């Protein structure tokens, strides 16, 4: 009996990265009291979003934008609401969206997919039959509950963020998508072993973007030392799944700061970072 080739995934927060370019010349042409009022409004609105733990502001290094605003939400509807709140700010008149990325937080279940298939087959269910689908949904539902904190994350409170999109190769010679599930499972296991050695130094959030954006995944790494990004990504390049099957897009590296510091930022200073207080998540829906 041919088993499905697709690994199960657990899908969580709707995720939007907004990369924004700031029009400094236009800004400096504004009277000081206007600028102050515009910053006060932006600090208040973005401060409210930040206090939920689900939105964060970063100062981007380099030419791909001045700011990155990251949002995790419960639905695409809530994500669009966040986007529209940013759009409605007076500050938006000085900001141009230089790039954005839409994805959904994803936990790939390479480790357990073949076990789930084997259990269902042992019960005599045919792949994709209603009993098969119901049995799989049962297991996934339990995993979804156990993994809830990782599926619905707050933005990790670290100073540096490294975001980039990725594909798995679909070439004539090397094609991830035609490999047997067992081979992909083995390679993803080895990938995970490297990653686990960086636990504590880096927090990674993988989001899936097939059907949503131009690449297949978004990778977010958060750390208090930016060199950790280079070391981790370099080490992974030598690992089979990255060496052969990984394709990368543009990298965005940002420094986190608080909405209350927007005044400093728009006065041309690089704000320092102190993790802002976040409302107790147990009080949130
Ligand atoms: O079995 C396991 O333990 C693996 C858990 C795991 C999955 C499923 C995992 C662990 N990742 C997974 C999926 Mn990852 N990851 C990246 C990059 O690829 C590169 O060379 C660089 C980009 C980094 C730095 C990284 C870090 N990972 C994925 C996927 C989806 C692929 C798919 O489903 O086919 C991609 C594209 C991807 C890429 N990964 C880890 C890390 C780290 C640090 C870990 C360990 C996390 C931990 O255990 O706490």
Based on the coordinates given, report the CATH architecture of the largest domain.
Answer: 2-Layer Sandwich
The fold-level CATH name of the largest domain is Alpha-Beta Plaits
SSE sequence, one letter per element: EHHEEHEHHHEHEEHHEEH
Can you count the beta strands? 9
- Class per helix and strand makeup: alpha+beta
End-to-end separation in angstroms reads 43 Å
- Radius of gyration over C-alpha positions, nearest whole angstrom: 21 Å
SSE inventory with pairings:
Elements: E1 9-22, H1 24-28, H2 32-51, E2 55-60, E3 67-73, H3 76-87, E4 95-108, H4 110-122, H5 130-146, H6 148-151, E5 160-168, H7 181-196, E6 203-208, E7 217-223, H8 227-237, H9 240-245, E8 246-248, E9 252-257, H10 262-266
Antiparallel strand pairs: 1-3, 1-4, 2-3, 2-9, 4-6, 5-7, 5-8, 5-9, 6-7
Please outline what is shown here:
With 285 residues, the protein is of the alpha+beta class. The chain has helices spanning 24-28, 32-51, 76-87, 110-122, 130-146, 148-151, 181-196, 227-237, 240-245, 262-266; strands at 9-22, 55-60, 67-73, 95-108, 160-168, 203-208, 217-223, 246-248, 252-257. Helix content is 38%, strand content 25%.
């Amino acid at each position: 009996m041919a088993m499905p080739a697709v690994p199960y995934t657990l899908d969580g927060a709707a995720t939007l990265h907004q990369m924004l370019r700031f029009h400094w010349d236009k800004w400096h042409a504004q009277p000081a009291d206007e600028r102050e009022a515009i910053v006060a409004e932006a600090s208040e609105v973005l401060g409210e979003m930040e206090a939920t733990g689900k939105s964060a502001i970063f100062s981007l290094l380099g030419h791909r934008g001045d700011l990155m605003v990251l949002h995790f939400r419960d639905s695409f509807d809530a994500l669009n609401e966040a986007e529209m709140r940013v759009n409605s700010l007076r500050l938006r008149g000085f900001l141009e969206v230089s790039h954005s990325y839409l994805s959904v937080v994803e936990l790939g279940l390479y480790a357990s997919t073949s076990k789930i298939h084997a259990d269902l087959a042992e019960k005599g269910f045919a792949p994709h039959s209603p009993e098969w689908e119901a049995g799989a949904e049962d297991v996934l539902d339990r995993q979804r509950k156990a993994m809830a904190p990782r599926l619905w994350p707050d933005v990790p409170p670290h100073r540096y963020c490294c975001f980039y999109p990725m594909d798995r190769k679909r070439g004539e010679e090397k094609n991830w998508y035609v490999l047997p599930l067992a081979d992909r499972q083995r390679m993803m296991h080895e990938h995970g072993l490297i990653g686990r050695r960086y636990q504590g130094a880096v927090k990674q959030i993988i989001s899936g973007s097939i059907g949503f954006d131009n690449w297949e995944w978004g990778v977010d790494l958060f750390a208090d030392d930016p060199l950790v990004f280079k070391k981790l990504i370099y080490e992974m390049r030598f690992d089979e799944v990255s060496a052969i099957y990984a394709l990368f897009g543009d990298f965005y590296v940002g420094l986190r700061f608080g909405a209350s510091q927007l005044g400093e930022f728009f006065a041309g200073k690089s704000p320092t970072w102190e993790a802002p207080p976040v409302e107790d998540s147990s009080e949130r829906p």
